[in-house]
Amino acid sequence: MSARDEILANLRKLNLAVPMLPTLDADWVRFDKPVEQFATMCTAVGGTVVPVPDKKAAIATISALPVIRDAKRVCSFARDILAGNVDLDAESDPHDLETLDVTLAEAILGVAENGALWFDSTFISQRTALFIAQHVVLVVTKETIVHNMHEAYARITSPRPGYGVFVAGPSKTADIEQSLVIGAHGARSATVLVVG
Amino acid sequence: MTKARPVGLFVPCYVDQLYPDVAMATLEVLEKQGLSVDFPSQQTCCGQPMANTGCDGQAEPLARRMVSLFANYDHIVCPSGSCVAMVRHHYKNFFGADDAAYQHVRKNTFELTEYLTDVLKVERIGGRFPHRVGLHASCHGLRELRLGHASELGRGVPTQDRARHLLSGLQDITLVELSRPDECCGFGGTFAVAEEAVSTMMGCDRIADHERAGAEIITAGDMSCLMHLEGLIGRQKKPIRIMHIAQILAGRPVDAEGPR
Amino acid sequence: MSEATATHSDHPKRATAFIKDHTRAQWHDQALWFVRTKRDRAVDLVPEWQTLRETAAAIKAHTVARLPDYLEQFEANATAAGATVHWARNADEHNRIVLQLLQRHRVSRIVKSKSMLTEECHLNPFLEQHGIEVTDTDLGERIVQLRKEPPSHIVLPAIHLKKEDVGDTFSEHLGTPKGLSDPQQLTEAARLHLREKFMQAEAGITGVNFAIAESGGIVVCTNEGNADLGCSLPRLHIACMGIEKLIPRIADLGVFTRLLARSATGQPITSYTSHFHGPQKGGELHIVMVDNGRTQIRQSDDYRRSLACIRCGACMNTCPVYRRSGGHSYGSTVPGPIGSILSPSSDPAAHRSLPFACTLCGSCTDVCPVKIDLHHQLLTWRKDLASLGLVAWTKRFSMVIASFVMARPWLYRMAGTWGKRIGRWLPRALLMKGPAAWMNPWVRSRELPPLPAASFREMFRKRSRTKE
Question: Assign residue B18 a region: left if phi > 0, alpha if psi is -120 to 50, beta otherwise?
Fold first, then answer.
């Protein structure tokens, strides 16, 4: 008997009463000012929040950012905001990204309760780029900010096959004596432009 | 006029033998509220130490005795959260759900502070207690009987703290603020002996918290916690004292003697 | 069992040794209490926290009851997305499946992100025996790996170490300057060192926080970015999970992602919550689903609820015993309250001290995001251990005596009166010191309780007579 068959058979030997799967329609938290809450939480998780009025301002602000100005290699998944100088597609070898300085990407949505931003492989052709770059610059528009994770999951569709990720601030660790260190193995900083 | 039926006083075995004044104070507090109180003299032990050691077989006969001794009282009151929790939550292993005597006893056994606050609806116990008091939140009372607010539940779960409510009503009392409001004292029954090092460290940490908060007296609803803390305090010859909450509510003076 | 540290857990002995260095034990306690307070602050900001807990508990209860159906649904959907699903009855099968995958791809260097399941199966030593270099990439895990120690906490593997200890380890293995102990600089050194490992890895192994039946996806929650680097640079991604990690719907993630990080570290969410549906282009995703005793736990009405565990570690952070004895005193892969319930299932004799390493304070139950009745299950384990004859005869004998005495009021009264009389008469030296201290650990650090001549019942009887 295969392991699969044996495990399933053993599980099915037991006739358990099945408690109902709850519907998820409780009154989940909503904020009076979700965009402000997003900014507060994004800062709390280590992000640097930069509000800008429109896309034009976003473009100008980004090109003036020190991480961008000092960058030799920039990967952009939002070509309308910044061209970048690294050509990337699904067939590329992610190892070529080792010296990547900055990755720029525009989020599909943001979550007010925790400052997280959702990205997926529809627009991110190489997931490694979000983690291997020394810094990330992320863009989110006001209208896409939802209140909580329940709303977020209701809106997103993870491509299948595909990849999606909630990014909340830069990489971090507190593994050494509970001392918070920003910048572990992923991005050392996350600049988040909130547009609108 | 018919006299009201007496309440049954349930006294933990070690309180009966080692801290009889706690039971006497409980008696006085209840009588002061106009109740007549009966002490069924055949009672001994609720069986908790046996159950907590995994010896349900040894706990069961004691549980049966307890239920039959108290079945005829409308209300049963006990100055111990852990004994009451044993009866209300852990006797179910020993009785059928349709056992009327067990169900009656289960539904009508109360810890002292909850009886005063929830059943007798006492607003203020009269008296003056001009001392700095640290309230130790005994775990069984706190988390099994929900006599107070467990800090880990967060602000979203408001629970009236019975002991705090009753103590606050005493004139000139100061309830000090602890850095860890409801950490366990480390007694834990046989744990105190089987895991002596951890038990001792936990007890010392509790005492230190009360000392830093400036408490003169540590009080609690469970004498087991206080027995453990008192043992440490006595060995270390510290000036801080312990009193069961029943003794404070009954107006006992603080023991003027120095440490043993 | 191959692991050196833990075939027999003797918690009291190890805890005593841990506490001997009292300053360090206090430091450890304070470090973990700090994590508990961070959790409390996060919980206070979520008004519907208790509703989330109840909902999560209900989702898990439903899922565990219908587990075979959800496993099949997950397998079908994961396969449709291009992943390959493997089933393993136990740790040995899991290890062999992983080894075969690596050998088939001629892999000799792998990186691994945090996975308690792989710890449970002792995967690292097994792979190393077969010539595969395994680098744990979570910073805490890398530290303990270099020190050849097991992790002491499931979320904070190196919580038992001071920064100076880490400095010493890095100085020895990574060439950092002797005496360097600044966490920022040490982390930087680890970043550079592990970057090389990521770049050179030929396969990446991750754990799985949640597996979604409805879509066949797996979710991995991390802060450091190591899991994603580890499974996107190499083309081969192996994800290892216990079968209890299933949840039915994507929407259920809304509940669990709100509970996990807040419970674990007090963060509103981890830096990265990665969702994998099938492999990346040109790559392979293998998901290894492991039973290893979970079916057996599911069979028990008493312990089934422990399968809801999402491995957040909150129970450890709040446990006053764990904080003062450290994860290594438990001698089990998962320590603390949940570990003391899970480990005895696999080997009750070896882990018989664990359910007693507890005062039944109940704080663990209150912090558990999925409402496992942890302290009640620990109490039930004591009963089961007694039935298995695994409770020390001294303990049981004293309870038999106590029960005998307590069932007979006349005997109880006599024992009380005479016990106290003798106690008051004996010299203190005999009661409290020397052999007494050995026989009665109470007196090592504590005075005995008072031994009053009159019991309450005697006082009550006198008082009633006076009143009449």
Answer: alpha
Q: For the whole model, what pTM was predicted?
A: 0.96
Which subunits have 3 or more CB–CB pairs within 8 Å of chain C?
A, B
- Within chain C, all domains assigned CATH 3.40.50.10420 are found at 48-141+199-292
Closest CB to C402: pick one of B41, B49, B183. Answer: B49
DSSP 8-class letter at C431: H
Residues of A in contact with C58 (CB under 8 A): 19-22
The ipTM of this complex is 0.98
Is B149 an interface residue toward C (CB < 8 Å)? no
The answer to whether C87 contacts A177, with C-beta atoms less than 8 Å apart, is no
| CB pair distance less than 8 Å for A8 and C267 | no
How many other β-carbons are positioned within 10 Å of the β-carbon of residue A43?
A: 14
Query: How many angstroms separate the CA atoms of C205 and C99, rounded?
Result: 11
Residue among A91, A153, A179 minimizing CB distance to C253 = A153
Tell me if B139 and C320 make a contact (CB, 8 A cut-off): no
Burial level of B51, CB count in 10 A (0-12/13-18/19+)? buried
- The reply to whether A116 touches chain C by the CB within 8 Å rule is yes
pLDDT at C8: 60
Distance from CA of C354 to the nearest CA of B (A): 11
Per the CB < 8 A criterion, the answer to whether C205 and C113 are in contact is yes
Could you report the per-residue pLDDT of C257-280, keeping only the tens digit for each? 999 999 999 999 999 999 999 999
Q: Do C269 and A148 touch (CB under 8 A)?
A: no
Q: For B18, what's the count of Cα atoms within 13 Å in the CB-facing half-sphere?
A: 17
Q: Mean pLDDT score of chain C, rounded to an integer?
A: 94
Q: Does B19 touch chain C (CB under 8 A)?
A: yes
Residue in the structure block whose two tokens are 């991110």: A124
Average pLDDT on C53-65 reads 98
Please state the rounded mean pLDDT for residues A138-165: 96
Binary contact (C403, B58; C-beta < 8 A): yes
- Report the topology of domain B125-249: Rossmann fold (3.40.50)
Contact A22 C270 (CB under 8 A): no
pLDDT at B31 over 50: yes
Interface test with C, best of B58, B94, B236 (most C CBs within 10 A): B58
Contact B73, B108 (CB under 8 A): yes
Contact between C443 and C436 (Cβ < 8 Å)? yes
Residues in chain A within 8 Å Cβ distance of C295: 7, 10-11
pLDDT tens, position by position, C428-451: 777 777 677 777 889 899 999 988
Name the class of domain A32-195: alpha beta
Contacts 24+ apart (CB under 8 A), A11-15: A11/C67, A11/C68, A11/C71, A11/C295, A11/C298, A12/C68, A14/C298, A14/C299
- Mean local confidence (pLDDT), B93-122: 97
Domain layout of chain A by residue ranges: 32-195
Length reported for chain A: 196
Distance from CA of A77 to the nearest CA of C (A): 17
Residue B257 has what pLDDT?
53
Name the CATH superfamily for C48-141+199-292. NagB/RpiA/CoA transferase-like (3.40.50.10420)
- Model confidence at C2, pLDDT cuts 50, 70, 90, reads very low
Are the beta carbons of A178 and C34 separated by less than 8 Å?
yes
Residue ranges of the domains in chain B? 7-118, 125-249
Cα–Cα distance, C376 to C249 (Å, whole number)? 30
Asked whether the beta carbons of C311 and C94 are under 8 A apart, the reply is no
